Amino acid sequence: MKIRFSLFAVLTAMVIAMAGPVVAQGSRIKDIASLQAGRDNQLIGYGLVVGLQGTGDSLRSSPFTDQSMRAMLQNLGISTQGGQSSAKNVAAVMVTATLPPFASPGSRIDATVSSLGDSTSLRGGTLVMTSLSGADGQIYAVTQGSVVVSGFTAQGQAATVTEGVTTSGRVPNGAIIERELPSKFKDSANLVLQLRNPDFSTALGMARRINNYAAATYGAPIAEARDSQEVMIQKPRTADLTQLMADIENLVVDTDTPAKVVINERTGTIVIGADVRVSKVAVSYGTLTVQVNETPQVVQPLPFSNGQTAIQPQTDITAQQSGGKVAIVEGPDLRTLVAGLNNIGVKPDGIIAILQGIKSAGALQAELVLQ
């Protein structure tokens, strides 16, 4: 807890050292918004990992693995008639990948492999050719390659050591895109930008900045803020859509965010936004610490006596009360608020309790988020 308090003190000291009031800084549009037509798409597939060193699925407990292996061999022209195999070098896996926007056939992406049966490790295995489908059922990529597993397992007769996760891994650049998305970027009649942190002030500021650029370049405004998240841009007739998007995403706008205080009680982390305000309140914080120490004493009998060795209990109880000072906290800006909290001289868990109390009293002009 002392380390957390020192880190909080360093961070708050850096805030106090800032000269002047907190001023909103500009950000590029590409950093605060994303293109609606340029979103990612999820892909999924089912496959087999072979070449495992006895760490694959037990075919009796995972019958789907045996069925998949027989179906694969039949497609390769190999007869699978006979009894059930007892090999443990094959594992059934689910394969997932993310299809990036505007991906073209022939480009490669990473694939994630996760065990589906009772395999204990995928280390050293090779993923057999697996097709990856989208939500529409169409195949968009095919993946194959060696599975890279970061975790490991060492097992002996009486002990087992496991580090990380051994039942999932990645196939770097193992998926090849075979089909492109049906929609084309340059076929769009307009562009829709979506704010990553929805805010009406930011959306309106972004629309004004884009319209100022468009007025100087094309002679007419082209942007309209639909709501707190979306800004629609109409394509000018003489504009190239790629060049237009490249120019717009580098425009700088002033962002605005609601006042928030984020608290993680488990780790003692406190994050206070720049626009947080606190009305004048009086705060008193004190803690009572009770410490109980058990130090039993061994009592020996006198020499040549018939007594027995005994243990005599001894308990020491210490009660200590700290804090209790009344301090006035007022935060017209972030520096004053942080300085007032530091003047109370409590640890992060105490500051968390104080902020919750100030919020309950109605003096914290911000949203309190507990994690």
Tell me about this structure.
The protein is α+β, with helices and mostly antiparallel strands. It folds into 3 domains: 2-23 and 259-297 and 312-370, no CATH class; 41-177, no CATH class; 184-254, Alpha-Beta Plaits (2-Layer Sandwich), CATH 3.30.70. The chain is 22% helix and 38% strand. The protein has 7 helices and 22 strands. The chain has helices at residues 2-16, 29-32, 63-75, 200-217, 241-248, 334-344, 348-360; strands at residues 26-28, 33-35, 41-50, 90-99, 108-115, 126-133, 139-146, 152-155, 160-163, 168-177, 190-195, 223-225, 230-234, 252-254, 260-264, 269-272, 277-294, 297-299, 310-312, 315-331, 364-365, 367-370. The strands form 7 sheets. Strands 3-4-5-10-7-6 form a 6-stranded antiparallel beta barrel. It has a 4-stranded antiparallel beta sheet with strand order 2-11-13-12. Strands 16-15-22 form a 3-stranded mixed beta sheet, with helices on one face. A hairpin with a 4-residue loop joins β8 (152-155) and β9. The protein is flat.
Sum this structure up briefly.
The chain has 371 residues and is α+β, with helices and mostly antiparallel strands. 22% of the residues lie in helices and 38% in strands.
